[in-house]
Amino acid sequence: MEDLVQKFLEFLEKEKRLSVNTLQSYRRDIEQFITYLKDVKINNVINTNKTTIIAYLLHLQKKGRATSTISRNLASIRSFYQYLTKNEIIPLDPTEGLESPKVEKKLPQILSTKEVELLLEQPKCDDLKGYRDKAMLELLYATGIRVSELISLDLSDVNLEMRYIMCNKGSRERMIPIGTLSVNAMRDYLTKSRNLLIQKNDEKALFVNVNGKRLTRQGFWKIIKQYKNQAKINKDITPHTLRHSFAAHLLENGADLRSIQEMLGHSDISSTQIYAQIAKNRLKEVYKKTHPRA
Questions:
Q1: Catalytic pick from 72, 132, 134, 146?
Q2: Is 214 a catalytic residue?
Q3: Which CATH class is domain 2-86?
Q4: What is the pTM of this model?
Q5: What residues does each domain of the chain span?
Q6: Catalytic residue at 141?
Q7: Is 146 tagged catalytic?
Q8: Can you give the pLDDT at residue 168?
Q9: Which of 37, 56, 159, 236 has the most CB atoms in a 10 Å sphere around its CB?
Q10: CA-based radius of gyration for the chain
Q11: Is 192 part of the annotated catalytic residue set?
Q12: In the CATH hierarchy, which fold is given to the domain comprising 113-289?
């Protein structure tokens, strides 16, 4: 079964061209499923059926897994069996007709404009790290890009004269404008910090750590937690919070959903519509707090 899993992952990587993080998620889900099969004495996927899959989902539920986690596991297993049936390794797909557990969509946490300003004021431009952190936070809020996209940026992806960055995701590429404050912070970082942080002149990474190497997602996570604590913001801020705030604030100030979808890089407008719900909820809150007869 391990060989089949490996071939499936190679198919996802070469044919579907999925990202490293997505591939790791598939690997984790399928390997956990295979471990379960072995525990219940099933050593060949051909011996599985719909009852087997349902039993596994109930097993995850008993272990206290969230509905969203169970739903994602089923999606991974479904893709695995579709691959097996398409390649005639098994005759029937046991996941066919199985419905995913309904996941209650939680609205993402966003910051108010005042909270964003407070957070962006935290990095002090009095050392190399301060210039870098200021540029990163300003760029994140100015563009709404993902943290994975931020740390993947190369020096060549930035055009400060024309005020835009090029963001690549697989075969898709999008050009995103950046504003004056972000441009100024980037200029300061590039002229006063990056050249002193890098160890090799041919370093491609835009944002580097104190060792001169490309900054990691974990490294950025620590940075944003540090500034959140400094700002004394009583919200659970994640690396994605500035992205959500970027989209919600654009919508509140009159931007249309299609434009926001394009800037965020969403392939489906339904992923962007969640920000419309946030805007509605915020309007209700304002009404309740300010209207004399609310």
A1: 146
A2: no
A3: mainly alpha
A4: 0.61
A5: 2-86, 113-289
A6: no
A7: yes
A8: 76
A9: 56
A10: 23
A11: no
A12: hpI Integrase; Chain A (1.10.443)
